[in-house]
């Protein structure tokens, strides 16, 4: 009688395609514990081009920094992180999603990073000039930004490669904001 597990032999590119649909980086790393082949597959650079930490769980600032220090982070082109603003816990809503030190590490350790998505993030301590200069796309959906941050959006010398920015549902941005007028004049 045929064993369905041992008779099912798929090529590495097929398994990489399957692993790319999992989405959660934590699960992909756990699959690397199955065997040497799975370890090698889970560390493939193609799986780490678009890293999405919004699928299953929110990452603390400490865990995000630990991930950025891992060798797999150098392959990242896009990083998506969800903050704690929409969290049920009042103490969690005050937690920072990113810090100036983390953004500096992103610039140093992730040379291919061009897209950064920070959803529901508390970033009132961050200035726009602290983000990596090579970013072409920024997404701040539902985030809390400082007024200085919004004012610096008008400066074309800050993030010169930036071509797309999403400020949907940003808490302190209104249609009457001078920052919004300046941002529109930058384009």
Summarize the SSE layout with pairings.
Elements: H1 4-7, H2 12-20, H3 25-31, H4 36-42, E1 50-52, H5 61-68, E2 78-82, H6 90-93, H7 100-109, E3 115-119, E4 122-123, E5 137-139, E6 144-145, H8 147-152, E7 164-166, H9 178-186
Parallel strand pairs: 1-2, 2-3, 3-5, 4-6, 5-7
Keywords:
9 helices; F-box domain-containing protein; 187 residues; 7 strands; two-stranded parallel sheet; Leucine-rich repeat, LRR (right-handed beta-alpha superhelix); F-box-like_dom_sf; alpha/beta; F-box_dom; five-stranded parallel sheet; LRR_dom_sf
Q: Cα distance, first to last residue?
A: 66 Å
Q: Assign a percent range to the helix content.
A: 25-40%
Low-confidence stretches: none
CATH topology of the largest domain: Leucine-rich repeat, LRR (right-handed beta-alpha superhelix)
Q: Based on DSSP secondary structure assignment, what is the total number of beta strands?
A: 7
Largest sheet: 5 strands, parallel
Beta-strand content bin: 5-15%
Residue-averaged pLDDT, rounded?
A: 80
Number of domains: 2
**Total of helices:** 9
* String of helices and strands: HHHHEHEHHEEEEHEH
Structural class: alpha/beta
């Amino acid at each position: 009688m045929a064993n369905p597990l041992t008779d099912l032999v798929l090529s590495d590119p097929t398994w990489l395609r399957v692993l790319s649909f999992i989405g959660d980086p934590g699960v992909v790393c756990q699959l690397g514990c199955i065997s040497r082949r799975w370890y090698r597959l889970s560390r493939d650079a193609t799986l780490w081009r678009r890293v999405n930490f919004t699928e299953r769980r929110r990452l603390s600032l400490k865990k995000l920094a630990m991930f950025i220090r891992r060798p797999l982070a150098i392959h990242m082109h896009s990083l998506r992180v969800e903050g704690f603003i929409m969290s049920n816990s009042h103490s969690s809503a005050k937690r920072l999603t990113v810090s100036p030190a983390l953004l500096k590490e992103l610039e140093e350790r992730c040379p291919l990073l061009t897209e950064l998505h920070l959803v529901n993030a508390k970033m009132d301590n961050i200035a726009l000039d602290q983000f990596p200069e090579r970013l072409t796309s920024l997404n701040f959906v539902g985030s809390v930004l400082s007024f200085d941050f919004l004012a610096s959006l008008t400066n074309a010398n800050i993030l010169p490669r930036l071509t797309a920015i999403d400020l949907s549902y940003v808490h302190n941005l209104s249609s009457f904001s001078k920052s919004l007028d300046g941002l529109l004049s930058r384009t």
